[in-house]
Write a structure and sequence with these properties.
This protein has 137 residues and is an alpha+beta fold. Helix content is 24%, strand content 42%.
């Protein structure tokens, strides 16, 4: 019984720690790189027709920059327009408004998401934008 309780406590601590790491790793500014679907491998006419009718995710476009803040606020920069919303992360699921994404992979340079809202899941790749370092004189 003690072993089971110890195991559950260790598992709970690991889950909380992993959640915190993801919340820290996602902070910063990201730009859209590309979108791909599993259906692109299947080039049937039915799939092509369905994809052309599918609405594109307005959050994942080339001209939109995403900035995740530690306050659970996300800023969308589109040219000279700045929009704000709240985001949440729970169990590797990123929620922005009604949009849900599975966080597939995150590194210092790249963020890979999978849309959970679409009938044909879309994988998104975003690249971190690093501010240039200022020279000290």
């Amino acid at each position: 019984m003690r072993i089971l309780i110890t195991f559950l406590l260790c598992f709970a601590m690991y889950s909380v720690n992993a959640q915190t790491d993801l919340q820290q790793d996602i902070l910063g500014k990201w730009k859209f790189v590309k979108a791909t679907t599993d259906a692109e491998k299947n080039t049937s006419k039915q799939t092509e027709t369905h994809l052309s009718k599918e609405q594109k995710d307005p959050l994942m476009q080339k001209d939109v920059l995403l900035r995740f803040e530690s306050t659970k606020d996300i800023a969308f920069e589109v040219e000279n327009i700045l929009l704000h919303a709240e985001y949440g992360i729970k169990d590797s699921i990123l929620t922005i408004g009604r949009h849900k994404y599975a966080v597939l992979k995150i590194t210092k340079e790249a963020l890979h998401l999978k849309s959970l809202n679409d009938s044909i899941p879309v994988n998104y790749e975003l690249q971190r934008i690093v501010a240039p370092k200022k020279d000290k004189k």
